[in-house]
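Checklist before submission:
- one chain only
- standard amino acids only
- sequence pasted in full

Submission:
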Amino acid sequence: MKLSRSFLLIGVFYGCTLFGQNYTKQCKLADELFPDDDKVILYKNYHLSIEPVGDTIQFVSTNRKVDYIRKNSQIHSKESIYYSSEFASISNLEAFTINLASSKKTKFAGAAEGMYFSSNIFYDDNRETYFIYPNMEDNVVTEMEYKMNYFEPRLIPSYYFSFNEPVLHSSMTVTFPLDCEIGWLIRDQGKYKIEMTKTVVKNKNEYTWKLENASILGSLTGDVSASKILPHVIVWIKKYKTKKRETRVLGDIDDLYAWYNGFLNHAKTKDQDLVKTVSDSISKNATSGLEKAKGIFKWVQDNISYVAVEDGYSGFIPRRADEVIKKKYGDCKDMANLLVELMKNCGLDARHVWIGTRDIPYTYYDVYTPIVDNHMIAAVKMDNVFYFLDATGKFMPFGFPTSMIQGKVALVEENDKHFELKKVEVIASDSNSMKDSVQLYISGDKLNGTGTYHLSGYPMIESKIQLSYAENNSEQKYFKELLLKGNNKFKLLNYELDDVVRVNDPMAISYTFEMDNYISSNTNEIFVNMNIGKTGLSPLVAQEINGEAFSTNDYNYIKDDYFSLTIPSGYTVDFTPADNLIEHDFLSYSSTYSIKGNKLVLHRRLVVNYLELSGDQLSKFNATVASIQKIERSNILLINKK
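Returned file contents:
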Protein backbone atom coordinates (compact mmCIF):
# COMPACT_ATOMS: atom_id res chain seq x y z
CA MET A 1 0.00 0.00 0.00
CA LYS A 2 1.20 3.50 -0.82
CA LEU A 3 1.11 4.53 2.82
CA SER A 4 4.17 2.47 3.60
CA ARG A 5 6.51 4.60 1.55
CA SER A 6 4.79 7.94 1.29
CA PHE A 7 6.69 8.59 4.48
CA LEU A 8 9.84 7.00 3.14
CA LEU A 9 12.52 8.47 5.36
CA ILE A 10 14.14 11.30 3.52
CA GLY A 11 17.76 10.20 3.60
CA VAL A 12 19.09 13.69 4.33
CA PHE A 13 17.57 16.60 6.23
CA TYR A 14 19.98 19.33 7.05
CA GLY A 15 20.83 22.49 8.65
CA CYS A 16 23.24 24.80 10.22
CA THR A 17 23.51 28.44 11.05
CA LEU A 18 27.20 28.39 10.07
CA PHE A 19 26.71 26.82 6.63
CA GLY A 20 29.74 27.59 4.49
CA GLN A 21 31.93 28.93 7.30
CA ASN A 22 35.09 27.65 8.91
CA TYR A 23 34.43 24.38 10.75
CA THR A 24 37.66 24.01 12.73
CA LYS A 25 36.01 24.70 16.07
CA GLN A 26 33.13 22.32 15.40
CA CYS A 27 35.46 19.53 14.22
CA LYS A 28 37.58 19.95 17.36
CA LEU A 29 34.45 19.57 19.52
CA ALA A 30 33.47 16.47 17.52
CA ASP A 31 36.94 15.02 18.15
CA GLU A 32 36.48 15.56 21.88
CA LEU A 33 32.93 14.20 22.13
CA PHE A 34 33.01 11.40 19.55
CA PRO A 35 36.66 10.40 19.02
CA ASP A 36 35.98 6.89 17.70
CA ASP A 37 33.41 7.61 14.99
CA ASP A 38 34.14 7.74 11.26
CA LYS A 39 31.54 10.43 10.70
CA VAL A 40 29.94 13.15 12.84
CA ILE A 41 27.05 15.38 11.78
CA LEU A 42 28.11 18.92 12.59
CA TYR A 43 24.85 20.57 11.54
CA LYS A 44 21.61 19.20 10.17
CA ASN A 45 18.39 21.14 9.66
CA TYR A 46 15.05 20.66 7.98
CA HIS A 47 13.17 23.96 7.62
CA LEU A 48 9.57 23.57 6.44
CA SER A 49 7.80 26.72 5.26
CA ILE A 50 3.99 26.58 5.03
CA GLU A 51 2.27 29.27 2.95
CA PRO A 52 -1.31 29.68 1.66
CA VAL A 53 -1.20 30.35 -2.10
CA GLY A 54 -4.48 31.34 -3.67
CA ASP A 55 -7.08 28.90 -2.42
CA THR A 56 -4.67 26.15 -1.47
CA ILE A 57 -1.47 25.68 0.50
CA GLN A 58 2.16 25.37 -0.48
CA PHE A 59 4.91 23.88 1.61
CA VAL A 60 8.60 23.81 0.79
CA SER A 61 11.49 22.52 2.85
CA THR A 62 15.05 23.78 2.84
CA ASN A 63 17.41 21.00 3.81
CA ARG A 64 20.99 21.55 4.90
CA LYS A 65 23.68 19.31 6.30
CA VAL A 66 27.36 19.53 7.21
CA ASP A 67 29.29 16.31 7.95
CA TYR A 68 32.75 15.84 9.37
CA ILE A 69 34.35 12.76 7.76
CA ARG A 70 37.22 11.71 9.97
CA LYS A 71 38.12 8.39 8.30
CA ASN A 72 36.95 5.77 5.77
CA SER A 73 35.95 8.64 3.52
CA GLN A 74 35.17 6.51 0.48
CA ILE A 75 32.41 4.72 2.37
CA HIS A 76 30.77 8.09 3.03
CA SER A 77 31.32 9.61 -0.40
CA LYS A 78 27.85 8.88 -1.78
CA GLU A 79 24.79 10.86 -0.66
CA SER A 80 21.21 9.94 -1.55
CA ILE A 81 17.86 11.67 -1.25
CA TYR A 82 14.72 9.53 -1.46
CA TYR A 83 11.24 10.81 -2.25
CA SER A 84 7.98 10.04 -4.03
CA SER A 85 7.93 11.67 -7.47
CA GLU A 86 4.14 11.95 -7.31
CA PHE A 87 4.11 13.92 -4.07
CA ALA A 88 7.42 15.82 -4.07
CA SER A 89 10.12 17.32 -6.27
CA ILE A 90 13.69 18.29 -5.53
CA SER A 91 15.44 21.49 -6.64
CA ASN A 92 18.44 23.76 -5.96
CA LEU A 93 20.75 20.92 -4.99
CA GLU A 94 24.32 21.93 -4.21
CA ALA A 95 27.14 20.08 -2.50
CA PHE A 96 30.78 20.72 -1.62
CA THR A 97 33.81 19.05 -0.09
CA ILE A 98 36.13 21.12 2.11
CA ASN A 99 39.66 19.93 2.81
CA LEU A 100 40.41 20.95 6.40
CA ALA A 101 44.19 21.04 5.88
CA SER A 102 44.18 23.26 2.77
CA SER A 103 40.74 24.92 3.21
CA LYS A 104 40.13 24.09 -0.46
CA LYS A 105 36.40 23.91 -1.28
CA THR A 106 35.33 21.76 -4.26
CA LYS A 107 31.84 21.77 -5.75
CA PHE A 108 30.21 18.50 -6.76
CA ALA A 109 29.86 17.63 -10.45
CA GLY A 110 26.11 17.17 -10.30
CA ALA A 111 23.50 14.61 -9.34
CA ALA A 112 21.91 11.65 -11.04
CA GLU A 113 18.34 10.43 -10.68
CA GLY A 114 16.86 6.97 -10.78
CA MET A 115 14.14 4.72 -9.49
CA TYR A 116 14.49 3.47 -5.94
CA PHE A 117 13.45 -0.15 -5.84
CA SER A 118 11.98 -1.91 -2.83
CA SER A 119 12.39 -5.67 -2.75
CA ASN A 120 8.71 -6.34 -2.00
CA ILE A 121 7.15 -3.86 -4.45
CA PHE A 122 6.81 -4.69 -8.14
CA TYR A 123 6.57 -1.04 -9.20
CA ASP A 124 6.30 2.31 -7.43
CA ASP A 125 7.14 5.98 -7.90
CA ASN A 126 9.96 6.16 -5.36
CA ARG A 127 12.93 8.06 -6.68
CA GLU A 128 16.54 8.50 -5.63
CA THR A 129 18.63 11.57 -6.34
CA TYR A 130 22.26 10.78 -5.62
CA PHE A 131 25.73 12.17 -6.11
CA ILE A 132 29.35 11.64 -5.10
CA TYR A 133 31.22 14.19 -3.00
CA PRO A 134 34.40 15.23 -4.87
CA ASN A 135 37.99 14.96 -3.62
CA MET A 136 37.06 12.75 -0.70
CA GLU A 137 39.79 11.82 1.76
CA ASP A 138 40.04 11.53 5.53
CA ASN A 139 39.52 14.69 7.60
CA VAL A 140 37.22 16.57 5.26
CA VAL A 141 33.91 18.36 5.73
CA THR A 142 31.00 17.92 3.33
CA GLU A 143 28.20 20.43 2.83
CA MET A 144 24.90 19.89 1.10
CA GLU A 145 21.76 21.95 0.57
CA TYR A 146 18.57 21.44 -1.43
CA LYS A 147 14.88 22.29 -1.50
CA MET A 148 11.94 19.89 -1.56
CA ASN A 149 8.52 20.94 -2.82
CA TYR A 150 5.59 18.91 -1.45
CA PHE A 151 2.29 18.51 -3.29
CA GLU A 152 0.15 16.70 -0.73
CA PRO A 153 -0.34 18.42 2.67
CA ARG A 154 -1.12 15.10 4.39
CA LEU A 155 2.25 13.60 3.54
CA ILE A 156 4.84 15.65 5.37
CA PRO A 157 7.77 13.32 6.09
CA SER A 158 9.00 12.66 9.61
CA TYR A 159 12.23 14.32 10.66
CA TYR A 160 14.88 12.00 12.06
CA PHE A 161 17.61 13.83 13.97
CA SER A 162 20.09 11.17 12.86
CA PHE A 163 19.98 7.62 11.63
CA ASN A 164 23.27 6.16 12.77
CA GLU A 165 25.76 8.95 13.41
CA PRO A 166 26.46 11.21 16.39
CA VAL A 167 25.38 14.85 16.01
CA LEU A 168 26.53 18.19 17.33
CA HIS A 169 23.39 19.98 16.18
CA SER A 170 20.25 18.66 14.49
CA SER A 171 16.97 20.53 14.26
CA MET A 172 13.63 20.83 12.53
CA THR A 173 11.95 24.22 12.08
CA VAL A 174 8.41 24.84 10.84
CA THR A 175 7.27 28.33 9.84
CA PHE A 176 3.55 28.82 9.28
CA PRO A 177 0.86 31.57 9.31
CA LEU A 178 -0.74 32.58 12.60
CA ASP A 179 -4.15 31.37 11.41
CA CYS A 180 -2.77 27.96 10.43
CA GLU A 181 -2.80 25.16 13.01
CA ILE A 182 -0.38 22.25 13.11
CA GLY A 183 0.00 19.13 15.23
CA TRP A 184 3.21 17.41 16.26
CA LEU A 185 4.49 14.35 18.07
CA ILE A 186 7.98 13.91 19.51
CA ARG A 187 9.31 10.35 19.74
CA ASP A 188 12.50 10.22 21.79
CA GLN A 189 12.00 7.07 23.91
CA GLY A 190 12.53 9.31 26.94
CA LYS A 191 16.27 9.21 26.34
CA TYR A 192 17.09 12.29 24.30
CA LYS A 193 16.94 15.95 25.32
CA ILE A 194 14.93 17.35 22.44
CA GLU A 195 14.22 21.02 23.06
CA MET A 196 11.19 22.71 21.54
CA THR A 197 10.83 26.47 21.16
CA LYS A 198 7.92 28.56 19.88
CA THR A 199 8.36 32.09 18.60
CA VAL A 200 6.58 34.57 16.33
CA VAL A 201 8.74 35.96 13.53
CA LYS A 202 7.36 38.50 11.03
CA ASN A 203 3.75 37.66 11.89
CA LYS A 204 4.37 33.92 11.52
CA ASN A 205 4.66 31.09 14.01
CA GLU A 206 8.02 29.39 14.13
CA TYR A 207 8.37 26.08 15.96
CA THR A 208 11.79 24.46 16.36
CA TRP A 209 12.81 21.07 17.74
CA LYS A 210 16.54 20.76 18.49
CA LEU A 211 18.89 18.00 19.61
CA GLU A 212 22.55 18.72 20.39
CA ASN A 213 25.68 16.73 21.24
CA ALA A 214 23.95 13.37 21.03
CA SER A 215 25.37 9.95 20.30
CA ILE A 216 22.84 8.08 18.15
CA LEU A 217 24.63 4.87 17.38
CA GLY A 218 23.69 1.25 17.29
CA SER A 219 23.53 -1.99 15.38
CA LEU A 220 20.47 -2.09 13.15
CA THR A 221 20.43 -5.86 12.77
CA GLY A 222 16.98 -6.99 13.88
CA ASP A 223 13.44 -6.40 12.76
CA VAL A 224 12.75 -3.40 14.97
CA SER A 225 12.04 -0.37 12.79
CA ALA A 226 13.93 2.92 13.05
CA SER A 227 10.69 4.63 14.09
CA LYS A 228 10.67 2.57 17.30
CA ILE A 229 14.22 3.41 18.24
CA LEU A 230 15.51 6.64 16.75
CA PRO A 231 14.50 10.12 17.94
CA HIS A 232 12.24 11.93 15.48
CA VAL A 233 9.45 14.47 15.12
CA ILE A 234 6.17 14.04 13.25
CA VAL A 235 4.41 17.22 12.08
CA TRP A 236 1.05 17.53 10.37
CA ILE A 237 -1.28 20.33 9.28
CA LYS A 238 -4.58 20.43 11.12
CA LYS A 239 -6.17 23.32 9.23
CA TYR A 240 -5.32 26.49 7.33
CA LYS A 241 -7.08 29.62 6.09
CA THR A 242 -7.10 31.34 2.73
CA LYS A 243 -8.97 34.44 1.66
CA LYS A 244 -12.01 32.37 0.69
CA ARG A 245 -12.27 29.64 3.32
CA GLU A 246 -10.88 27.64 6.18
CA THR A 247 -9.76 24.16 5.15
CA ARG A 248 -9.37 21.20 7.47
CA VAL A 249 -6.56 18.84 6.56
CA LEU A 250 -5.88 16.47 9.47
CA GLY A 251 -7.58 18.08 12.43
CA ASP A 252 -8.58 14.72 13.90
CA ILE A 253 -9.06 11.11 12.95
CA ASP A 254 -12.38 11.96 11.26
CA ASP A 255 -10.44 13.98 8.68
CA LEU A 256 -8.08 11.09 8.00
CA TYR A 257 -11.01 8.71 7.59
CA ALA A 258 -12.83 11.13 5.27
CA TRP A 259 -9.72 11.30 3.07
CA TYR A 260 -9.34 7.52 2.96
CA ASN A 261 -13.04 6.97 2.40
CA GLY A 262 -13.02 9.40 -0.50
CA PHE A 263 -10.63 7.12 -2.36
CA LEU A 264 -13.23 4.35 -2.27
CA ASN A 265 -15.44 6.41 -4.56
CA HIS A 266 -12.83 5.91 -7.29
CA ALA A 267 -12.99 2.13 -6.82
CA LYS A 268 -16.68 1.55 -7.48
CA THR A 269 -17.38 -1.47 -9.64
CA LYS A 270 -18.38 -0.85 -13.25
CA ASP A 271 -19.19 -4.40 -14.29
CA GLN A 272 -21.57 -5.37 -11.50
CA ASP A 273 -22.77 -8.42 -13.44
CA LEU A 274 -19.27 -9.93 -13.39
CA VAL A 275 -18.88 -9.41 -9.65
CA LYS A 276 -22.36 -10.83 -8.98
CA THR A 277 -21.70 -13.86 -11.19
CA VAL A 278 -18.48 -14.68 -9.36
CA SER A 279 -20.03 -14.07 -5.96
CA ASP A 280 -23.05 -16.25 -6.72
CA SER A 281 -20.93 -19.09 -8.10
CA ILE A 282 -18.78 -19.15 -4.95
CA SER A 283 -21.66 -19.02 -2.47
CA LYS A 284 -24.37 -21.01 -4.25
CA ASN A 285 -23.98 -24.10 -2.05
CA ALA A 286 -23.29 -22.27 1.20
CA THR A 287 -25.93 -22.72 3.91
CA SER A 288 -24.88 -19.85 6.18
CA GLY A 289 -23.29 -16.42 6.07
CA LEU A 290 -20.14 -17.82 7.64
CA GLU A 291 -19.82 -20.44 4.90
CA LYS A 292 -20.29 -17.75 2.26
CA ALA A 293 -17.60 -15.57 3.80
CA LYS A 294 -15.18 -18.48 4.10
CA GLY A 295 -15.77 -19.50 0.50
CA ILE A 296 -15.18 -15.99 -0.85
CA PHE A 297 -12.02 -15.53 1.23
CA LYS A 298 -10.63 -18.84 -0.03
CA TRP A 299 -11.52 -17.97 -3.64
CA VAL A 300 -9.63 -14.67 -3.51
CA GLN A 301 -6.61 -16.38 -1.88
CA ASP A 302 -6.55 -19.06 -4.60
CA ASN A 303 -7.36 -16.96 -7.66
CA ILE A 304 -5.82 -13.51 -7.11
CA SER A 305 -2.04 -13.16 -7.00
CA TYR A 306 -0.54 -10.53 -4.75
CA VAL A 307 1.49 -7.95 -6.69
CA ALA A 308 2.44 -4.64 -5.06
CA VAL A 309 2.06 -1.76 -7.51
CA GLU A 310 2.27 1.68 -5.93
CA ASP A 311 2.32 4.74 -8.14
CA GLY A 312 1.19 8.09 -6.76
CA TYR A 313 -2.40 8.24 -5.59
CA SER A 314 -2.98 4.77 -7.01
CA GLY A 315 -1.08 3.67 -3.94
CA PHE A 316 -4.09 4.79 -1.91
CA ILE A 317 -6.95 4.05 -4.32
CA PRO A 318 -8.08 0.41 -4.60
CA ARG A 319 -8.58 -0.89 -8.11
CA ARG A 320 -12.11 -1.87 -9.06
CA ALA A 321 -13.29 -5.35 -8.10
CA ASP A 322 -14.23 -6.25 -11.68
CA GLU A 323 -10.81 -5.07 -12.88
CA VAL A 324 -9.00 -7.24 -10.32
CA ILE A 325 -11.08 -10.28 -11.25
CA LYS A 326 -10.15 -9.85 -14.92
CA LYS A 327 -6.45 -9.23 -14.30
CA LYS A 328 -6.20 -11.90 -11.59
CA TYR A 329 -3.74 -9.88 -9.51
CA GLY A 330 -3.74 -6.96 -7.12
CA ASP A 331 -2.09 -5.45 -4.07
CA CYS A 332 -3.41 -5.42 -0.50
CA LYS A 333 -6.07 -2.74 -1.05
CA ASP A 334 -7.19 -4.35 -4.34
CA MET A 335 -7.68 -7.71 -2.66
CA ALA A 336 -9.42 -6.08 0.31
CA ASN A 337 -11.81 -4.18 -1.96
CA LEU A 338 -12.56 -7.34 -3.95
CA LEU A 339 -13.38 -9.23 -0.75
CA VAL A 340 -15.74 -6.45 0.34
CA GLU A 341 -17.54 -6.28 -3.01
CA LEU A 342 -17.96 -10.06 -3.36
CA MET A 343 -19.27 -10.37 0.21
CA LYS A 344 -21.67 -7.44 -0.14
CA ASN A 345 -23.14 -9.14 -3.18
CA CYS A 346 -23.95 -12.07 -0.86
CA GLY A 347 -25.68 -9.75 1.62
CA LEU A 348 -22.80 -9.84 4.13
CA ASP A 349 -21.74 -6.87 6.25
CA ALA A 350 -18.24 -6.45 4.78
CA ARG A 351 -15.97 -3.47 5.49
CA HIS A 352 -12.77 -1.86 4.24
CA VAL A 353 -10.08 -1.71 6.93
CA TRP A 354 -6.94 0.44 7.18
CA ILE A 355 -4.23 -0.79 9.51
CA GLY A 356 -0.52 -0.45 10.26
CA THR A 357 1.86 -3.37 10.52
CA ARG A 358 3.69 -4.08 13.77
CA ASP A 359 6.86 -2.27 12.74
CA ILE A 360 4.92 1.01 12.98
CA PRO A 361 4.89 2.19 16.62
CA TYR A 362 2.02 4.67 16.33
CA THR A 363 -1.75 4.22 16.69
CA TYR A 364 -4.71 6.33 15.58
CA TYR A 365 -4.89 7.55 19.17
CA ASP A 366 -1.33 8.95 18.94
CA VAL A 367 -1.35 10.59 15.54
CA TYR A 368 -3.97 10.79 12.81
CA THR A 369 -1.92 10.97 9.63
CA PRO A 370 -1.10 8.35 6.97
CA ILE A 371 2.11 7.61 8.86
CA VAL A 372 0.10 5.40 11.23
CA ASP A 373 -0.83 2.74 8.67
CA ASN A 374 0.63 1.02 5.62
CA HIS A 375 -1.76 -1.83 4.89
CA MET A 376 -5.37 -2.51 3.92
CA ILE A 377 -7.46 -5.57 4.68
CA ALA A 378 -11.16 -6.44 4.84
CA ALA A 379 -13.48 -7.35 7.68
CA VAL A 380 -16.86 -9.01 7.83
CA LYS A 381 -19.16 -8.56 10.80
CA MET A 382 -21.40 -11.47 11.80
CA ASP A 383 -23.27 -11.81 15.09
CA ASN A 384 -21.47 -8.70 16.41
CA VAL A 385 -18.08 -10.31 15.79
CA PHE A 386 -15.53 -8.84 13.40
CA TYR A 387 -13.51 -11.30 11.32
CA PHE A 388 -10.40 -9.62 9.93
CA LEU A 389 -9.42 -10.97 6.52
CA ASP A 390 -6.04 -10.44 4.87
CA ALA A 391 -6.01 -12.27 1.54
CA THR A 392 -2.38 -11.32 0.90
CA GLY A 393 -1.64 -14.22 3.27
CA LYS A 394 -2.26 -16.99 0.76
CA PHE A 395 -2.49 -19.78 3.33
CA MET A 396 -4.11 -17.89 6.20
CA PRO A 397 -7.15 -19.65 7.69
CA PHE A 398 -10.35 -17.63 7.72
CA GLY A 399 -10.40 -15.09 10.56
CA PHE A 400 -6.71 -15.61 11.33
CA PRO A 401 -4.85 -12.30 11.00
CA THR A 402 -1.51 -12.19 9.27
CA SER A 403 1.17 -12.17 11.96
CA MET A 404 2.35 -8.67 11.03
CA ILE A 405 -0.92 -7.01 12.17
CA GLN A 406 -1.46 -8.82 15.49
CA GLY A 407 -2.33 -6.43 18.29
CA LYS A 408 -2.69 -3.42 15.99
CA VAL A 409 -5.60 -0.97 16.08
CA ALA A 410 -7.62 -1.02 12.86
CA LEU A 411 -9.66 1.76 11.27
CA VAL A 412 -12.82 -0.04 10.20
CA GLU A 413 -15.26 1.41 7.68
CA GLU A 414 -18.85 1.80 8.82
CA ASN A 415 -20.29 4.19 6.23
CA ASP A 416 -19.28 7.36 4.38
CA LYS A 417 -18.97 9.38 7.57
CA HIS A 418 -18.52 6.92 10.41
CA PHE A 419 -15.92 4.36 11.36
CA GLU A 420 -14.93 2.11 14.25
CA LEU A 421 -11.57 1.54 15.87
CA LYS A 422 -11.03 -2.15 16.59
CA LYS A 423 -7.98 -3.95 17.93
CA VAL A 424 -6.85 -7.06 16.08
CA GLU A 425 -6.28 -9.89 18.51
CA VAL A 426 -2.88 -11.35 19.28
CA ILE A 427 -3.12 -15.05 18.52
CA ALA A 428 -2.50 -17.10 21.66
CA SER A 429 0.43 -19.49 21.78
CA ASP A 430 -1.79 -22.59 21.99
CA SER A 431 -3.22 -21.79 18.53
CA ASN A 432 0.27 -21.93 17.03
CA SER A 433 1.62 -25.33 17.87
CA MET A 434 4.39 -27.69 16.84
CA LYS A 435 4.16 -31.24 18.15
CA ASP A 436 6.81 -33.83 17.40
CA SER A 437 6.06 -37.43 18.47
CA VAL A 438 9.00 -39.78 17.90
CA GLN A 439 9.55 -43.48 18.59
CA LEU A 440 13.27 -44.27 19.09
CA TYR A 441 15.10 -47.61 18.76
CA ILE A 442 18.73 -48.48 19.50
CA SER A 443 20.59 -50.66 17.01
CA GLY A 444 24.27 -50.97 17.88
CA ASP A 445 25.70 -47.45 17.78
CA LYS A 446 22.83 -46.31 15.59
CA LEU A 447 19.62 -44.60 16.65
CA ASN A 448 16.56 -45.20 14.48
CA GLY A 449 13.35 -43.24 14.69
CA THR A 450 9.81 -42.96 13.38
CA GLY A 451 7.92 -39.76 13.95
CA THR A 452 4.94 -37.59 13.19
CA TYR A 453 5.29 -33.81 13.19
CA HIS A 454 2.07 -31.81 13.62
CA LEU A 455 1.83 -28.12 12.75
CA SER A 456 -1.02 -25.66 13.26
CA GLY A 457 -1.49 -21.91 13.13
CA TYR A 458 1.41 -19.74 11.99
CA PRO A 459 4.00 -22.58 11.92
CA MET A 460 1.66 -24.47 9.58
CA ILE A 461 1.23 -21.37 7.42
CA GLU A 462 4.98 -20.85 7.19
CA SER A 463 5.48 -24.46 6.11
CA LYS A 464 2.82 -24.17 3.42
CA ILE A 465 4.50 -21.04 2.08
CA GLN A 466 7.84 -22.85 1.95
CA LEU A 467 6.26 -25.85 0.24
CA SER A 468 4.51 -23.67 -2.32
CA TYR A 469 7.94 -22.63 -3.62
CA ALA A 470 9.70 -25.96 -3.12
CA GLU A 471 10.21 -28.55 -5.81
CA ASN A 472 11.83 -31.98 -5.60
CA ASN A 473 15.29 -31.53 -4.05
CA SER A 474 14.44 -28.20 -2.43
CA GLU A 475 11.42 -29.80 -0.74
CA GLN A 476 13.59 -32.62 0.58
CA LYS A 477 16.12 -30.10 1.86
CA TYR A 478 13.35 -28.14 3.59
CA PHE A 479 12.03 -31.21 5.39
CA LYS A 480 15.50 -32.34 6.40
CA GLU A 481 16.05 -28.95 8.05
CA LEU A 482 12.59 -28.96 9.62
CA LEU A 483 12.91 -32.48 11.04
CA LEU A 484 16.63 -32.39 11.84
CA LYS A 485 17.65 -34.50 14.80
CA GLY A 486 20.82 -35.00 16.81
CA ASN A 487 23.97 -34.35 14.81
CA ASN A 488 25.32 -34.18 11.28
CA LYS A 489 24.89 -37.97 10.99
CA PHE A 490 21.13 -37.46 10.72
CA LYS A 491 19.63 -39.15 7.64
CA LEU A 492 16.02 -38.50 6.70
CA LEU A 493 15.02 -41.81 5.13
CA ASN A 494 11.56 -40.82 3.99
CA TYR A 495 8.66 -38.49 4.69
CA GLU A 496 5.03 -38.38 3.69
CA LEU A 497 2.77 -35.39 3.23
CA ASP A 498 -0.42 -36.09 1.29
CA ASP A 499 -1.78 -33.46 -1.09
CA VAL A 500 -4.98 -33.54 0.94
CA VAL A 501 -3.00 -32.78 4.09
CA ARG A 502 -1.21 -29.90 2.36
CA VAL A 503 -4.39 -27.83 2.14
CA ASN A 504 -5.82 -28.54 5.57
CA ASP A 505 -5.16 -27.23 9.04
CA PRO A 506 -3.40 -28.74 10.91
CA MET A 507 -0.85 -30.48 8.74
CA ALA A 508 1.13 -33.57 9.67
CA ILE A 509 4.38 -35.02 8.36
CA SER A 510 5.16 -38.69 8.90
CA TYR A 511 8.85 -39.58 8.63
CA THR A 512 11.60 -42.05 9.46
CA PHE A 513 15.28 -41.41 10.07
CA GLU A 514 18.51 -42.86 11.39
CA MET A 515 21.64 -41.46 13.05
CA ASP A 516 24.91 -43.35 12.81
CA ASN A 517 27.47 -43.23 15.63
CA TYR A 518 25.01 -41.57 17.97
CA ILE A 519 25.07 -44.15 20.80
CA SER A 520 27.92 -44.30 23.31
CA SER A 521 28.28 -47.67 25.04
CA ASN A 522 30.59 -50.13 26.75
CA THR A 523 30.11 -53.72 27.92
CA ASN A 524 27.14 -53.06 30.22
CA GLU A 525 26.28 -49.39 29.76
CA ILE A 526 24.54 -47.31 27.12
CA PHE A 527 24.60 -43.52 27.17
CA VAL A 528 21.98 -41.67 25.13
CA ASN A 529 21.08 -38.02 24.83
CA MET A 530 17.33 -38.15 24.22
CA ASN A 531 17.21 -34.45 23.36
CA ILE A 532 17.56 -35.40 19.73
CA GLY A 533 15.62 -32.43 18.43
CA LYS A 534 16.69 -29.02 19.61
CA THR A 535 14.16 -26.47 20.78
CA GLY A 536 15.22 -24.07 18.05
CA LEU A 537 16.03 -21.31 20.54
CA SER A 538 19.18 -19.27 20.28
CA PRO A 539 20.33 -16.08 22.01
CA LEU A 540 18.60 -13.04 20.57
CA VAL A 541 20.63 -10.60 18.53
CA ALA A 542 18.95 -7.32 19.28
CA GLN A 543 18.94 -3.87 17.83
CA GLU A 544 20.65 -1.61 20.27
CA ILE A 545 20.68 2.17 20.49
CA ASN A 546 22.61 3.70 23.37
CA GLY A 547 22.31 0.53 25.40
CA GLU A 548 18.56 0.06 24.89
CA ALA A 549 17.99 -3.33 23.29
CA PHE A 550 14.95 -4.54 21.35
CA SER A 551 14.00 -7.76 19.66
CA THR A 552 10.82 -8.91 17.99
CA ASN A 553 9.11 -12.24 17.43
CA ASP A 554 6.65 -13.05 14.65
CA TYR A 555 4.16 -14.89 16.84
CA ASN A 556 3.56 -16.75 20.11
CA TYR A 557 3.77 -20.53 19.96
CA ILE A 558 4.01 -23.83 21.84
CA LYS A 559 6.43 -26.60 20.91
CA ASP A 560 5.83 -30.05 22.39
CA ASP A 561 8.33 -32.86 21.88
CA TYR A 562 7.64 -36.47 22.88
CA PHE A 563 10.70 -38.69 22.46
CA SER A 564 9.93 -42.30 23.39
CA LEU A 565 12.90 -44.69 23.58
CA THR A 566 12.33 -48.46 23.55
CA ILE A 567 14.55 -49.85 26.32
CA PRO A 568 16.71 -52.68 24.87
CA SER A 569 16.04 -56.15 26.23
CA GLY A 570 18.00 -56.85 29.40
CA TYR A 571 18.63 -53.19 30.16
CA THR A 572 17.13 -50.98 32.84
CA VAL A 573 17.13 -47.23 33.29
CA ASP A 574 19.83 -46.36 35.82
CA PHE A 575 19.87 -42.57 35.49
CA THR A 576 17.76 -39.80 34.01
CA PRO A 577 18.44 -36.06 34.36
CA ALA A 578 16.33 -34.19 36.88
CA ASP A 579 13.05 -32.72 35.70
CA ASN A 580 13.23 -29.02 34.88
CA LEU A 581 10.79 -26.12 34.97
CA ILE A 582 11.69 -22.56 33.97
CA GLU A 583 8.92 -19.98 33.91
CA HIS A 584 8.77 -16.38 32.75
CA ASP A 585 5.84 -14.40 31.38
CA PHE A 586 7.49 -14.34 27.96
CA LEU A 587 9.09 -17.80 27.94
CA SER A 588 8.67 -21.08 29.76
CA TYR A 589 10.32 -24.47 29.41
CA SER A 590 9.86 -27.87 31.01
CA SER A 591 11.38 -31.28 30.56
CA THR A 592 10.27 -34.49 32.30
CA TYR A 593 11.25 -38.16 32.04
CA SER A 594 8.88 -41.06 32.72
CA ILE A 595 8.91 -44.84 32.26
CA LYS A 596 5.90 -46.39 30.55
CA GLY A 597 6.26 -50.13 30.21
CA ASN A 598 9.42 -50.81 28.21
CA LYS A 599 9.72 -47.19 27.06
CA LEU A 600 11.48 -44.18 28.49
CA VAL A 601 9.64 -41.00 27.49
CA LEU A 602 11.04 -37.48 27.46
CA HIS A 603 8.43 -34.74 27.20
CA ARG A 604 9.64 -31.22 26.55
CA ARG A 605 7.40 -28.18 26.34
CA LEU A 606 8.49 -24.75 25.18
CA VAL A 607 6.07 -21.81 25.36
CA VAL A 608 7.14 -18.59 23.64
CA ASN A 609 4.82 -15.78 24.61
CA TYR A 610 6.10 -12.42 23.37
CA LEU A 611 6.01 -10.24 20.28
CA GLU A 612 8.63 -7.80 21.49
CA LEU A 613 11.27 -7.86 24.22
CA SER A 614 13.41 -5.07 25.58
CA GLY A 615 15.81 -4.29 28.39
CA ASP A 616 15.89 -6.76 31.29
CA GLN A 617 13.48 -9.14 29.58
CA LEU A 618 15.93 -9.65 26.76
CA SER A 619 18.76 -10.40 29.18
CA LYS A 620 16.59 -12.92 31.02
CA PHE A 621 15.61 -14.52 27.72
CA ASN A 622 19.22 -15.06 26.69
CA ALA A 623 20.11 -16.40 30.15
CA THR A 624 17.19 -18.83 29.93
CA VAL A 625 18.31 -20.02 26.49
CA ALA A 626 21.77 -20.75 27.92
CA SER A 627 20.17 -22.78 30.73
CA ILE A 628 18.03 -24.76 28.28
CA GLN A 629 21.02 -25.53 26.08
CA LYS A 630 22.85 -26.87 29.13
CA ILE A 631 19.87 -29.02 30.12
CA GLU A 632 19.68 -30.51 26.64
CA ARG A 633 23.28 -31.74 26.77
CA SER A 634 22.40 -34.27 29.50
CA ASN A 635 22.47 -38.06 28.86
CA ILE A 636 20.42 -40.92 30.24
CA LEU A 637 22.14 -44.14 31.33
CA LEU A 638 20.92 -47.68 30.60
CA ILE A 639 22.58 -50.62 32.40
CA ASN A 640 22.59 -54.31 31.51
CA LYS A 641 22.39 -56.09 34.88
CA LYS A 642 22.68 -59.62 33.60
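Reviewer check: The CA atoms of residues 185 and 366 lie 8 Å apart.
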